[in-house]
Amino acid sequence: MSKQTIPKSTTTHIAALWVILAAFCLPTAQLQAQGRGSPPTPINFTVTISGFCSFDILAQGTGKAGVISLPDGGFIFTAPATSVTMTNLSDPTKSVTLSITGTVKNSPVQQNGTFTQTFRGRNGVSFGPSAPFPNQFFFLIGTWTIVIDANTGQVLQGPTGNGQMINMCDLLE
Questions:
Q1: How confident is residue 38, by pLDDT bands cut at 50, 70 and 90?
Q2: Structural domains counted in the chain
């Protein structure tokens, strides 16, 4: 069985905050070579998020993040003790600090060319223009799943699940 990788998409931005967190962790391929992963490492980030709201968002976060490689080829992003302050850059008096301590589990690529991402706990998730919720940025609380085309990165289905789906733009307006 050959190992497939999940491509980056130019049209879909999945798990925006997880991408930020993952950038401060070891790459998944490196972790797979080392075994199942290591303890979460400290992170500290500041990034501007554009294109989802009528205003840019400044995200400033601290905490820990890590990746756990699964025996089936999937992986889990973790973020224990992580929080992020999101600020509306058009009106800096509007900001919110969120605990983003959830996990994101990526399944291995299936025979039909798709994979799933399962979000558990408290996660920030954004969707690009071709997603079921185009150009939206959400704070998800609970358990949510999306199905993604592994070749294009396009979200085919979801999010479906249980919990709260809070629009970040509405929260910061």
A1: confident
A2: 1
Contact 48, 58 (CB under 8 A): yes
Sign for the CA dihedral angle at 87, 7, 153, 100 comes to negative
In a domain, 93, yes or no: yes
Q: Look at residue 3 and tell me if it is in a domain.
A: no
CA end-to-end span of the chain, whole Å? Answer: 49
Structure confidence by residue, pLDDT tens digits, 79-103: 999 999 999 999 999 999 999 999 9
According to DSSP, residue 109 is labeled: P
Q: Is residue 160 part of a domain?
A: yes
Domain that holds residue 28: 16-172
pTM for this predicted structure: 0.77
Q: Cα-flanking dihedrals φ and ψ of residue 12, to 5°?
A: -130, 130
Q: Nearest 5°: phi and psi at 162? A: -125, 135
Which residues lie below 8 Å from residue 130, measured CB to CB, with a gap of 6+?
11, 12, 154, 155
